[in-house]
Specification:
The chain has helices at residues 15-22, 130-133, 149-168, 173-194, 206-220, 227-234, 238-249, 253-271, 276-282, 288-299, 303-312, and strands at 12-13, 45-49, 57-62, 65-72, 75-79, 82-86, 90-94, 99-103, 110-116, 144-146. The protein has two domains: 12-194, Regulatory protein AraC (Jelly Rolls, Sandwich), CATH 2.60.120; 206-312, Orthogonal Bundle (Arc Repressor Mutant, subunit A). A hairpin with a 2-residue loop joins β5 and β6 (82-86). The chain is built from eleven helices and ten strands. The strands form two sheets. The protein has a five-stranded mixed β-sheet. Helices cover 44% and strands 16% of the residues. With 313 residues, it is of the alpha+beta class. One of its GO terms (molecular function) is DNA-binding transcription factor activity.
């Protein structure tokens, strides 16, 4: 648990609080922040290689941005409602408050990841402009993409340059790291646009509707439970949205809302001490009995049984 965080809500971890969750204690890697002298650290920023990373993490929320870069091997990542497989050249992006989990790290997996707080780049860009300038950090953006070999090499080079600044700890190293991070983000935005991800908000093709619908559900599932609500936001009819989701995923649009409710319920049961009745209220169920029936139907376990298994596991 992060310091000073109530067990009455799903914890959202900061950089210091989350380190124990993603790093194996006692690892000897000398890359980035791992075993970096405290005097050389830069507030609001961390950089690691995958050497010494835990094979499984989450689901949890963090209050910083994350960039994950795969050089080889595979791992399974889940962001909100979306599941992705990282492989050679895959890069993913997480923004503050997003539910994140990782599993299935292959034995040959290697890569890098960067963590930074919204205010870390404020000398260059306002924190509220980050998801605007870099849409892969926005709800409506695409959080995963595949880099070309040249783009991967350039991205890894930026990580190496940031690491060199951390290790040398020369005057101005914090400014240099900020500049390298910003330049990395600019190059990644170019790749993002090159791959056609910068679509208009009213594009109604399934390939664009599906990720935008999933992100909207991740953001509004507590207050919007009808497919028609999301169709109105997306500027399409409910029938069109239902058809697009089913054709593209094999599932109904309403299943995405249900899936997000289940994931949020699991996180609350695993990470908080709030009562079952309290979780039912937070998830806007009419009564605890209805929440119990819903959860057991979708998972095969009662909420209480799931919580006991999570604690004992």
């Amino acid at each position: 648990m992060p310091a000073n965080t109530s067990r009455k809500e799903i914890p959202q971890y900061g950089l210091e609080d989350s380190r124990q969750l993603h790093r194996v204690p006692g690892n000897t890697s000398a890359f980035g922040y791992n075993n970096l002298a405290p005097a050389a650290r830069i507030k609001g920023f961390e950089l690691y290689s995958s050497e010494g990373v835990r094979a499984q993490m989450g689901p949890l929320k963090s209050d910083y941005y994350r960039i994950s870069i795969s050089v080889r091997g595979t791992t399974e990542i889940q962001l909100g409602l979306e599941d992705f497989t990282h492989s050679n050249g895959t890069i993913s992006f997480t923004f503050p408050g997003q539910i994140f989990s990782k599993r299935g790290l292959s034995d040959d997996a290697f890569g890098y990841y960067l963590l930074f707080e919204p205010g870390f780049l404020e000398d260059i860009i306002s924190p509220d402009r980050i998801p605007v300038e870099f849409p892969f950090f926005a709800f409506a953006g695409v959080p995963f993409m595949q880099l070309s070999p040249a783009e991967l090499e350039m991205t890894v080079d930026f990580a190496a340059r940031m690491n060199a600044e951390l290790q040398r700890h020369q005057p101005g190293h914090d400014k240099a790291v900020r500049m390298y991070l910003y330049l990395m983000l600019l190059e990644l935005k170019r790749s993002y646009l090159r791959q056609g991800f910068g679509v208009t908000e009213r594009d109604d093709k399934p390939v664009y509707l599906v990720p935008r619908y999933r992100k909207l559900v991740s953001e509004h599932f507590l207050t919007k439970r009808k497919v028609a609500d999301y169709a109105a936001i997306l500027g399409v009819t409910p029938n069109h949205l239902n058809r697009a989701i089913r054709e593209h995923t094999g599932h109904t649009a309403s299943e995405a809302i249900t899936d997000m409710l289940v994931r949020e319920a699991k996180a609350a049961l695993r990470y908080t001490d709030i009562t079952i009745a309290g979780i039912s209220d937070q998830l806007h169920f009419s009564d605890p009995a209805g929440f119990n029936r819903f959860f057991k139907e979708k998972t095969g376990l009662t909420p209480l049984a799931f919580r006991k298994n999570a604690v004992s596991g």
